[in-house]
């Protein structure tokens, strides 16, 4: 058996794809061969991985032959087309698009929360929505400690949540330029503004982003009836989403116990000394790995009520890093299998 | 009796004071004489009111002699000192500071909501916090129609909520400059960021701004036990606060009835056709008078749950306009008295 995996990244040139390349390079996964794939439009560029220049090529049905791991971040339509082909070729597919997330046959994984849902054989594994990932990482330890009865959340989502094109639109606006016709633009001017719309509207007035936060949270936490009440809002921040979360827990909150639970939780960094000016913000979280939690407050009216403020890099933990962390679990499992297969 | 009032504005040179001057000029109040007052530091400038140049003078105990109406926006300390003096001189004082808002002897007024609380004789009338005003204007008609059981709110507050100095700090940051030592700065860089702190922290982890939203909402709506769960957040927007509000009502929500109640409500402008891209945003609300409401959504889990998105100009309805609207009620009452006193 070879020393490493053959890995494919589909959508390598996007904002999440580039971050996948970075986080994969920093991971313990040995990579024998890396295929950078894109739609024909994105092909032809060159990117660097662990010191090697690699050309981006157009994806074809043959692209996945011999591939052990495929990371997808090229949108729902590309995932719909290529994920089944890659799995049939024998690859694990970790898909950052929304295409398979709510498919009851597909595991929706946050490694700190539900790693036991990863299947045994190569399959599609869905990477959750960015706003959902950071929320469930903070919620899981509180659910384990107190039980979770109800979730209220208002988001402050960065421009890069809409991809590299969103980041570019904000930068153009901030520089005083007009976003060129044909280029991506937010539903309203984002610079100097906040927009209560992420993704499209559904018939009952929820946005699809809000619906994702409801359904994905329920699925990941395995609480299909959990009431989640989200409002998703775009803010003129380049990278990192912030969330104002109010939880109604299953039992009375003890603030010190909540702190201890969060401090011990994998993936969480508690930064909560507001009197000393310590709480997480987007500028602090951008470029870092943790889900930052602060502003823990016991509610003044309901003993089961808890406020928290959760910030994370939406390109890293909210997308690329979470995907690579799933890949690392698969890599560790392979190493364990290898160990078990030793004489 | 003279044809108009003698009016004093204390703090005329600040962001709210300047807007008071504008909204007073646009009001039906006849002004016989306008005294623009400031602390000695702010004195000496000249401002224009209804075509007349008026010099700003330093406030002294004699400043209020013969004054019928005094508008205060110079901070809590100035209000503490000067408001009792002005009332003793026979003036109505409409005070935009937080100093007297929670004083049980002082009326806290939003004209659309509780005008009946205005006292009969010249007194201090407190003008509520900006975030509170726009929220209660939207809540009052829903409370009248359905009853109000619980309020969850996350704010998106503009830089000018911290006054002209806040606006300037954001502009300096956006222009790439460093805020000079000694100048006002937000607790963190605000450009490209969101800061979960407005005003100072209290011992239980609430900010004073969050506490204001709780207590002032309870007082204005005359619901002293109403649970209000706020998180107040500063965003890099120059003017206009936005609020993501989730209400638990006293009875099942009928969305159409909620729409009708809001459409008929004084001070509210309903802009709610998200499918057509219509919902309020800060850039739309800045410079306008209404409290804009949109994104009405029936909750998917609780028949008594209602989401709404509320945006208003924090310098106008959130401060100066509300104060001048209170003054207009006093002016109307005086006219009615005059009419009654006719032979």
From TrEMBL, chains A, B:
Keywords of this entry: Amino-acid biosynthesis, Diaminopimelate biosynthesis, Lysine biosynthesis, Methionine biosynthesis, NADP, Oxidoreductase, Threonine biosynthesis
Entry's Gene Ontology BP terms: 'de novo' L-methionine biosynthetic process; diaminopimelate biosynthetic process; isoleucine biosynthetic process; lysine biosynthetic process via diaminopimelate; threonine biosynthetic process
Catalytic class of the enzyme: oxidoreductase
Catalytic reaction annotation: L-aspartate 4-semialdehyde + phosphate + NADP(+) = 4-phospho-L-aspartate + NADPH + H(+)
Binding site for NADP(+): 13-16, 160-161, 314
Domain Semialdehyde dehydrogenase NAD-binding: 6-121
Entry binding sites for substrate: 157, 234
Pathway(s) annotated for this protein in UniProt: Amino-acid biosynthesis; L-threonine biosynthesis; L-threonine from L-aspartate: step 2/5; Amino-acid biosynthesis; L-methionine biosynthesis via de novo pathway; L-homoserine from L-aspartate: step 2/3; Amino-acid biosynthesis; L-lysine biosynthesis via DAP pathway; (S)-tetrahydrodipicolinate from L-aspartate: step 2/4
Annotated EC: 1.2.1.11
Annotated GO MF terms: aspartate-semialdehyde dehydrogenase activity; NAD binding; NADP binding; protein dimerization activity
Signal peptide: none
Binding site for phosphate: 101
Transmembrane segments: none
Active site: 130 (acyl-thioester intermediate), 241 (proton acceptor)
Classification via SMART domains: Semialdhyde_dh
Stored Gene3D superfamilies: Dihydrodipicolinate Reductase, domain 2 (3.30.360.10), NAD(P)-binding Rossmann-like Domain (3.40.50.720)
Record Pfam families: Semialdhyde_dh (PF01118), Semialdhyde_dhC (PF02774)
Family: Belongs to the aspartate-semialdehyde dehydrogenase family.
Function: Catalyzes the NADPH-dependent formation of L-aspartate-semialdehyde (L-ASA) by the reductive dephosphorylation of L-aspartyl-4-phosphate.
PANTHER family: ASPARTATE-SEMIALDEHYDE DEHYDROGENASE, DEHYDROGENASE, PUTATIVE-RELATED
Oligomer and partners: Homodimer.
Name the record gives this protein: Aspartate-semialdehyde dehydrogenase
Taxonomic lineage of the native organism: Bacteria, Candidatus Eiseniibacteriota
């Amino acid at each position: 058996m070879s020393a490493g995996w053959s890995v494919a990244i589909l959508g390598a040139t996007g904002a999440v794809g580039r971050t996948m390349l970075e986080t994969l390079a920093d991971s313990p996964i040995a990579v024998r061969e890396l295929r950078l794939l894109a739609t024909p439009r994105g092909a032809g560029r060159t990117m660097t991985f662990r010191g090697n220049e690699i050309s981006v090529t157009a994806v074809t049905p043959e692209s996945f032959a011999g591939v052990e791991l495929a990371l997808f971040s090229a949108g729902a339509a590309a995932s719909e087309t290529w994920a089944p082909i890659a799995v049939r070729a024998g690859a694990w597919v970790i898909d950052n698009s929304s295409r398979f997330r709510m498919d009851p046959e597909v595991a929706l994984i946050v490694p700190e929360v539900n790693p036991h849902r990863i299947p045994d054989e190569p399959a599609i594994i869905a990477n959750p929505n960015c706003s959902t990932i950071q929320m469930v990482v903070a919620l899981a330890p509180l659910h384990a400690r107190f039980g979770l009865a109800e979730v209220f959340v208002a988001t402050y989502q960065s421009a890069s949540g809409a991809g590299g094109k969103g980041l570019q639109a904000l930068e153009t606006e901030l520089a005083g330029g007009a976003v060129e016709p044909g280029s991506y633009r937010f539903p309203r001017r984002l610079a100097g503004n906040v927009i209560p719309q992420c993704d499209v509207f559904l018939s009952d007035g929820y946005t699809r982003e809000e619906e994702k936060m409801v359904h994905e949270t329920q699925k990941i936490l395995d609480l299909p009836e959990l009431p989640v009440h989200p409002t998703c809002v775009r803010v003129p921040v380049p990278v990192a989403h912030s969330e104002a979360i109010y939880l109604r827990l299953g039992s009375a909150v003890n603030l010190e116990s909540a702190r201890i639970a969060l401090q011990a939780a994998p993936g969480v960094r508690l930064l909560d000394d507001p009197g000393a000016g310590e709480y997480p913000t987007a500028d602090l979280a951008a470029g870092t790995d943790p889900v930052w939690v602060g502003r823990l407050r016991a509610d003044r009216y309901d003993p089961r009520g808890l406020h928290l403020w959760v910030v994370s890099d939406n390109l890293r933990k909210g997308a690329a890093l979470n995907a690579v962390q799933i890949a690392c679990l698969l890599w560790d499992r392979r190493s364990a299998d290898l160990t078990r297969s030793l004489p």
